[in-house]
Design goal:
Length: 252
């Protein structure tokens, strides 16, 4: 089975080299690596070009935001499975993709997800928060659960059947896609109890109170769009408490 890994970039010169190296160092040998750049103004493209044909496909053009760029990557992907790695994140180690693909082959499922470390921007080995996931149970999203999106790998045919990222969701389109795939269309999935990604803190979704509020509103909109009922009063509590626990436990 071939896997396509998509990285979206825009002015990512400070972290992109780490991201690329973490993909190219994987022990799994059938990887299509796609980079979609939003016309960066720094040295991002120079970094990409320095890797030559080790990067399978490169697009550099203006886009309508990160989810539009992700959709471009999905249209270019030819792998049986697709994963998305942000340009400031890295895989936990060189065996991640091998373990993920083994799970796909062994379990014959539509999707696989795992755990995630939030790490310091200047030191990816310093854990700030440990997002330890669990087995998916239908109805879990309404209780504040969802997989870490960077650890969510999906068969390409599921995207083709159930759609790409919804650009009407200005933020949290990744949440909406996972909600749609797992809860609404009930694609098959399996949990891989391993840390998949080290994710630097300080991203767009959690960089300010305003962004957090907009994100929560967008998440409520995602439930409405997919006609999934939730308790709007308790839902923020369901989401907030696990995050506090994760920050306390960190890498435990």
């Amino acid at each position: 089975m071939k896997i396509s890994i998509i990285t979206i970039t825009y002015n990512s010169e400070k972290t992109l080299d780490d991201t690329i190296k973490s993909v190219l160092s994987q022990t799994y040998n059938d990887i299509e690596y796609i980079i979609v750049d939003g016309k960066s103004k720094d040295t991002t493209i120079d970094i990409v070009k320095s890797y030559g044909d080790k990067i399978s496909k490169v697009v550099t053009e203006k886009d309508n935001g990160i989810y539009d760029a992700m959709n471009k990557g999905l249209r270019l992907a030819t792998g049986d499975v697709v994963g998305i790695l942000n340009s400031d994140d890295v895989y936990f180690d060189e065996h991640v993709i091998e373990k993920v693909m083994h799970k796909f082959q062994k379990e014959n499922v539509d999707s696989v997800y795992g755990d995630l470390y939030y790490v310091k921007p200047e030191n990816v080995n310093e854990v700030v928060r440990y997002w330890k996931s669990s087995e998916f149970i239908k109805g879990s999203f309404a209780k504040g659960w969802h997989p870490p999106h960077p650890s969510f790998f999906v068969k390409r045919e599921a995207y083709e059947k159930h759609g790409f990222f919804d650009l009407n969701m200005k933020v949290s389109a990744d949440f909406e896609l996972m909600l749609r795939f797992l809860e609404k269309f009930q694609i098959s999935t399996v949990y891989l109890p391993k840390v998949i990604v080290r994710m630097r803190t300080g991203g767009e979704s959690n960089s300010s109170i305003g962004n957090i509020i907009r994100g929560n509103r967008s998440i409520l909109k995602a439930f409405e769009k997919n006609q999934i009922k939730i308790n709007k009063l308790l839902y923020p509590f369901y989401r907030f408490v696990p995050k506090i626990i994760q920050m306390i436990k960190k890498g435990k």
